[in-house]
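ok so dumb question maybe but i'm new to this and my supervisor (M.) told me to 'just get the structure for DUF8082 domain-containing protein' and walked off. so i did the thing. is this what she meant?? sequence i used:
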Amino acid sequence: MSAPQWPAGLSDSTPLPYTIWRVLHQVDGTRDITEVARLAGLTVPDVTERLQAAEQWINRAAQREQRVTDETADTVTQCLTPVIGPMAEVMVDEVLDELGSSATLSGLLSGLARQLNPERVQQFARNLRDRGIT
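this is what came out, is it supposed to look like this??
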């Protein structure tokens, strides 16, 4: 078996759940997956699952740092509308205006979340996850 590698874009400072770091700590580019599993105290399928989860975390992190496109803004508005109603479009536009031309998805979502109570933030987050955002 070939030696597993860290996903591109991952660094020691990337925030990941402990269950994933537990595996990545053993990945050094020379150990095969069986040895990584043994050292982590897991099964090979568990290690494979954790490596795939790490890749997903990195992809989501990259998505959050991308600039907001019109399509992304529309999707965010569609996710916010069921939470607060027709004011969603105005809120999204205002936050984008505040962020200026360097608006990232992370900045947009943070700006919107600050304006919502905790229950609405949770509903908004569920809607975003259902659409594949964050």
